Amino acid sequence: MSAEATNPVSAAEATGPDAPSRRRARPRIDLRRLGRAALLGPTARDRLPDAIGHVAEAHRAHHSDADLAVLRRAYVLAEFSHRGQFRKSGEPYITHPLAVTLILAELGAETTTLTAALLHDTVEDTEVTLDQVREQFGDEVAYLVDGVTKLEKVDYGAAAEPETFRKMLVATGNDVRVMSIKLADRLHNMRTLGVMRPEKQVRIAKVTRDVLIPLAERLGVQALKTELEDLVFAILHPEEYERTRALIADNTGAGDALAAIAESLSAVLRDAGIAAEVLVRPRHFVSVHRVHLKRGDLRGSDFGRLLVLVAEDADCYAVLGELHTCFTPVISEFKDFIAAPKFNLYQSLHTAVAAPDGAVAEVLIRTHQMHKVAEAGVVALGNPYTPPANGDGAEPAEDGERADPTRPGWLSRLLDWQQSTPDPDTFWTSLRADLAEDQEITVFRADGGMLGLPAGASCVDAAYAQHGATAHGCLGARVNGRLATLSTVLNDGDTVQLLLAQDTASGPSPEWLDHARTPAARIAITAWLQTHPEAAKAPEADPRPPVSVTADRRSGAKLHADLPGTPATAVRPAGCCTPVPPDEITGFQVRGGSVTVHRTGCASVDTMRRHGREPVTVHWGDTAECRVTLVAESFGRPRLLADLTEAIAAAGVAVVSATVEPPSEQRVRHTYTLQLPDAAGLPALMRAMRDVGGVYDVSRAQHPATLEG
């Protein structure tokens, strides 16, 4: 695991240190030699010191017009200030900032980040002050150095971890480049971890696994993430690591199967006139281990994947079409991360095809720019504070997840809830739980924006992700246009419209915690309940009989039946569908000789006919007065019953009876039997009831069909 043996980019998705590099070959870097060279006297003022020449070469490969003078000055200061210091491995200390800077340069970091990387240990470990850094290199470099300095010399004991990573998130939230430097710093330390005691190796590897690797994933820095995974794998699971290494060593010709498919695919794309580069990407150790656990015995094509690089987005879909036309696709493996990018900026088309011999090859299709971002994540975006070169000053996207790449949406959420969690242990537990969610879904807001949530998130989580503290007054949601409770679990691609109460005093109930998956939601709900103890102690929808209110019982609309010997008083509307003028109606004679009248579309009509009941012709009398039963579906809130009753009274309608069922999941059902002076006013009454805050539906009563009399 020596630092000088591994290149961060070529190690990503590679089967080992000896795997061929995917980019233009450079001489292997001997950091021990560079460290010794750094101590050998002055260099000419008109060129960079030899020890940093490799950094300059890597930097110019990504930024051809970069000004290297500031790097020379930073190196000279770092080398001078660290002179005489040595790492535990015996190397001159300057080899560490050089290695960290080289890692970032290979990823395409801009000059300011590299300058700060060279100086990241000077303020902590030497006589150089932050004011001196600011004076020589400016406020931006000083800010980055200060942010990284706060994370150095960390005791990774259990008691120190929570506060350490709280500081890390705070620093990262203001400038994500702080975390980029920290990740590169950790990668180099992991490469040289062999000089430490085994127990300390395990402790650092566990923290790297639990926090830094998930953070690298969320920042999209796959090149760092994959190598960190392999290094942690070797320390925490040495036996599995050795078995995987042996498995790879025993299949040195595994790439031939993929190479043959790659050659066939290249020929197909050439014939189709699509300019594309087809590469074979060997899997790294952890990836091979996971595939082995999933599939058992591995074939040659399982040790790598095909990567197709094209110029434009449209070319990606053209390649996909040719691939699925000329090969047998494995449809279940298709994923489109171009139309719906992942939360960490990742874009690509994923698919898989079957070869004639049954071997399955996974294929990644992306543009060159997508590939750069897939490898380096936010590091590849350069300095986000530099105005666009064309000067058009494009407005940031509305999408909260990707509007500011230096502060992705998930990171903003972490920062928000960490400020609401003063207890370090609670914060640490919540942080690890959030980072452990390695699967995310994307849901669409009603206004066209998107929310990134962990798989299994509910409408409660969506409410707090979109509205923050305002979500305390959430009454419910519409998921894909249909009303849903806050406990509804969301799926990838769902459209969610959150319904908020007009009453700002409304708050969550304790049962919301049962449906909250995200730390942001759980912490916000818990904080509100702690400041409103009366809400937390309130009884929660205990079983109790319905509340009934009874008013006067005036007669309903006049009904007549064309049945000899049947007086008008024996004709009554059915309670299952409560017909009112001018509904189309039919009647059935029941026990005792009376007639019940139903709407023609009532389910009871079909039931009666199936049992041989003959319908009776009925019709409305001259009076327009009628009695009707309405059901109001609503989300629970204070004064709801009073507001509904007021709306009914304002329409000039008398309440015969009212029943309020116990609330369930914040939803309440009100059933009203009403006496209307004129049936023509029923539609207006129902609209008025729907306009009451919290009411989402009002309908005519429709009870299950029964066989009467």
Tag the structure with descriptive keywords.
single chain, 709 residues, alpha+beta, six-stranded mixed beta sheet, five-stranded mixed beta sheet, 26 helices, elongated, disordered N terminus
Summary, kept brief:
The chain has 709 residues and is an alpha+beta fold. Helix content is 40%, strand content 16%.
Tell me the layout of helices and strands.
Elements: H1 8-11, H2 31-38, H3 53-62, H4 69-82, H5 95-107, H6 111-118, H7 122-125, H8 130-137, H9 139-149, H10 161-174, H11 177-191, H12 198-218, H13 222-236, H14 238-249, H15 255-271, E1 277-282, H16 285-295, E2 304-310, H17 313-326, E3 328-329, E4 335-336, E5 349-354, E6 360-367, H18 368-376, H19 409-419, H20 424-435, E7 440-445, E8 450-454, H21 459-467, E9 474-479, E10 482-484, E11 495-500, H22 519-531, H23 533-537, E12 547-550, E13 559-561, E14 571-573, E15 585-589, E16 595-599, H24 603-610, E17 615-616, E18 618-620, E19 626-635, H25 640-650, E20 654-660, E21 667-676, H26 682-690, E22 695-700
Parallel strand pairs: 2-6, 7-11, 14-16
Antiparallel strand pairs: 1-2, 3-5, 4-5, 5-6, 7-8, 9-10, 9-11, 12-20, 13-18, 15-16, 15-17, 19-21, 19-22, 20-21
Helix pairs in contact: 3-5, 4-6, 5-6, 5-11, 6-9, 8-9, 9-11, 10-19, 10-20, 11-12, 11-13, 12-13, 13-14, 14-16, 19-22, 21-22
